[in-house]
Amino acid sequence: MALNNRYDFVLLFDVKDGNPNGDPDAGNLPRVDAETGRGLVTDVSLKRKVRNFVGLTKGEQPPFEIYVKEKAILNKQHERAYQAIPGGVEILAGDDKKRKGGDKVAETRGWMCKNFYDVRTFGAVMSTGINCGQVRGPVQLTFARSIDPIVAQEHSITRMAVATEAEAEKQGGDNRTMGRKFTVPYGLYVAHGFVSSFLTKQTGFDEKDLELLWQALAQMFEHDRSAARGEMSTRGLYVFKHDSELGNAPAFSLFERIQPKLKNGIVVPRSFEDYEIFVSKETMPTGITLERHDDE
Fold first, then answer.
1. What is the rounded distance in angstroms from the CA atom of residue 203 to the CA atom of residue 9?
2. Among 182, 204, 289, 178, which Cα is nearest to 240's?
């Protein structure tokens, strides 16, 4: 069923003794706003977890295949699209001018949207190699930002093994490898998201896809465990549903209704219990419904 409503949502998640999103340009330190000290998690990182969840639960089968995934060769997926449409094989075998796709681009773009969940959800640039066009995704996410400043702690770690015989000889058989890892003792993060019903008409994103998105956002950290990320959990998913496609209130005014704050007497947060989540439901704008989708 097609979407006929606009949605705006607030995602709360936390990390304990882990690195929620390392910065490769800073030695994999947790990302941080240098001026405020608040932690950051990119929209790309959050989308990666949604993709992983969908791929895991749907078995990478159409219409829930994942376009951007580990070790993917994107141009090979474009070739699949041309092989699937009438006349596409001839284009693949044609000269350089025909390889651009011509009037078949719209057909292949539609095929990509139909088969790949992340294309019809987040959009994609598919013009590399043979051209499948570009898709503007109806679902968009912001960077997540921690409610309070975080501190990145550095830890020395030891592996009781080496990789080569040469390393073992250098150490006289001691066989130790030293390393480092970075963690955030605790951080509660908030991200904002948007769903445009107008753009869903272009990609085919429907009610079934929307429910899968809510499920992924609520459960994605439960299936993304690693020693580096510590304990990460979704702590709240607040969805504002508009009665109309254009919307019944500005997104910022809805986001301001979700206010996580430290409890009295807490100076340094170390758990979710150190916070209170204030949800303002009074005088809700006409045409707005607030829903929870985090199983609480």
1. 20
2. 289
CB atoms within 10 A of CB 268: 11
Cβ neighbours of 165 (radius 10 Å): 8
Whole-number Å distance between alpha carbons of 123 and 217: 18
Residues forming a β-bridge with 239: 9, 291
Tokens at 262, concatenated? 């430290």
Q: What string of H, E and C letters represents the secondary structure of the chain?
A: CECCCCEEEEEEEEEEEECCCEEHHHCCEECECCCCCEEEECHHHHHHHHHHHHHHHHCCCCCCECCCCCCCCHHHHHHHHHHHCCCHHHHHHCCHHHHCCHHHHHHHHHHHHHHEHHHHHHEEECCCCCCCCEEECCEEECCEEEEEECCCEEEEEEECCCCCHHHHHHCCCCCCEEEEEEEEEEEEEEEEEEECHHHHHHHCCEHHHHHHHHHHHHHHHHHCCCCCCCEEEEEEEEEEEECCCCCCCCHHHHHCCEEEEECCCCCCCCCHHHEEEEECCCCCCCCEEEEECCCC
C-alpha distances in Å from residue 199, one per residue of 47, 213, 260: 18, 16, 31
Q: Where are the domains of the chain?
A: 7-154+181-292
In the predicted model, what is the mean pLDDT of the chain? 91
**CA 6 to CA 198: how far, in whole Å?**
8
Q: Are 251 and 19 in contact (CB under 8 A)?
A: no
Amino acid at 144: A
Instruction: Give the tokens for residue 34.
Output: 């240098």
Whether 197 contacts 5, CB under 8 Å: yes
How buried is residue 174: exposed, middle or buried, by Cβ count under 10 Å (0-12/13-18/19+)? exposed
pTM, entire model: 0.91
pLDDT, tens digit, 9 for 90 and up, residues 86-102: 888 877 877 555 445 56
What is the C-alpha separation between 118 and 69, in angstroms, rounded?
A: 10
How high is the pLDDT of residue 192?
Answer: 98
